[in-house]
Amino acid sequence: MAGASLALLLAHHCPALQVSLLERHALPDSNAVLSLPSFDTRATAIAAGSLQIFDELGLWPALRAYAAPISRVDVSDRGHSMGASLNAARESEASFDGMLGAVIENAALGPLLYRALEKTRVDVLAPAEVGDVAMTADGAVLSWRAAGAKEADQQTLRTRLLVVADGTGSPLCRQLGIATQEVDYHQQALVATVGLQRDHAGVAFERFTDSGPMALLPLPRRDGIHRAALVWTCEQGDWERLASLPEDAFIGHLQQTFGWRAGRIVRAGRVQGYPLKLSLAREQVRRGLALVGNCAHFLHPVAGQGFNLTLRDCDGLARTIGRAMAGKGTDFGQAGPGELDLLQAYWRERQHDQQLTIGFSDRVPPLFASRSLLLSGLRQAGLLGLALAPALRSGFARQAAGLAL
C-alpha cells in the first residue's frame, strides 16, 4: 500500500514525472466486483489527516463505500476507573468530514489504490521480481523480470530516484547496505475480526492491560453482523495458546480481558499473530535513494500510526519533488528527483513528525503495562488531563490525526 500510495501522490503532485511501480504480486482484476469476506480480513485505521490526503487524490468517495467512520475514541486502563474520550464533534480541528478517522479492510484498500493508478500515467509492472540493484552517479540501475520468467529474460530499468517501499527485512535494503536498529518487544499482535451483539456506533476502543494495549476498531456491518477489528497485544508465549482455543473459549477469554465497553462479543474469525518490534532504518535517504514504509520504520500498532506515518512521508516526498520541479522546471538538475539536497530537505521536514510518532508508539505500551504505583499514578494523571483539559486533548487529537504539522 505504501508503494501504490506514493505512486498516486507523485502522479498528482508531479504530473510531468515518469514513474514506474514494480509490484511483486499480481494485481487484482480491476473489472472484478470487489467482494469482501465478512471475517478473516485485516484492516487499517486511517487517521483524519490521511483521509485528507486521499480526498485530495479524489479517492475518498470510493474508499468511503468500504469504510467505517470513527466518531469517537475511548481510551481506558484496565483496573482503573479513569479514562479519556476523543469525540469528532468536540475535536473538530482534528477531524475530517465529521470523523476522527475511518477503518478500511486491506482487501478493499489495496485494490482501490491500484484501480486509481489505472487512471494515471504511472507504469505499473506486476508481477515483477527485482534482482540486483546498483547505485550509479545518475541514480540507480535495477534488474528485474516478470514473475515466473527465465533468468535470461531479465530486463534493466534505470531511474534517477529509487524509492524502496518494502516491508521489514527488505532484500533491497540489505543489498544497499542499509542497516536497521531494532527493539524486540517479545510480544505478538493477535489480529482477528469479531462480531458484536450491538452496533459499535463508530466508537474505537483503545484499552491498556497488563500485557499491553488492545484495540477494537469499528468495521462496516456485513451480512447482518456488527463487526470490529481486534488487535490484541499478547506475551510471546500466550498468543499460540489463545489462537488455538475453540471460538467460544477464545471469545470468553477476550470478553473477560477486554470487558463490556463494546457490549457482548458473539463471534470471532480466524486469529493471526504478528511479532512486534520497533525497526528503524539508520538511513532513509541517500543520493538517488529514499526509503518509505515498513523498511523505513516499523512501529508498535498502538494507536494505529504505522501506515498513517508512512502516508505522510509519501505525501511529503511527492510535495518536495513537486515544489522543486515547479521552481526549476521539469529538468531540474543533473540528479533530478534524486538530488541529495532535495532528499535531505524532505528528510528534515519529516524528522519531527517521525520522532514524535515513533517515540509515542515505543514508550506508551510499557508505561501502561507497568505495575509500578508511581507510573500508575502518572498515567492516571495523563488520562485525567485528557479528560479535563481541552487544550491538552485537542493537541493530542491533532497529533494522532496527523494534523499537528
Please provide a written account of the structure.
By secondary structure, this protein is of the alpha+beta class. The chain folds into two domains: 2-67 and 91-180 and 278-379 and 394-401, 3-Layer(bba) Sandwich (FAD/NAD(P)-binding domain); 182-276, D-Amino Acid Oxidase, subunit A, domain 2 (D-Amino Acid Oxidase, Chain A, domain 2). The protein is 35% helix and 30% strand. It has eleven helices and 20 strands. It has helices at residues 2-13, 48-56, 60-64, 106-117, 171-175, 239-243, 247-258, 306-328, 340-369, 373-388, 390-401, and strands spanning 20-22, 43-47, 67-70, 72-77, 83-87, 101-105, 123-125, 128-136, 139-146, 155-159, 162-164, 180-196, 203-209, 212-222, 225-235, 265-268, 272-281, 285-286, 289-291, 297-298. Strands 4, 5, 12, 13, 14, 15, 16, 17 and 20 form a nine-stranded mixed beta sheet that branches. It has a three-stranded antiparallel beta sheet with strand order 2-6-3. Strands 8-9-10 form a three-stranded antiparallel beta sheet, with no helix packed on it. A hairpin with a 2-residue loop joins strand 8 and strand 9 (139-146). Mean pLDDT is 85; it is low at 377-381 and 383-389.
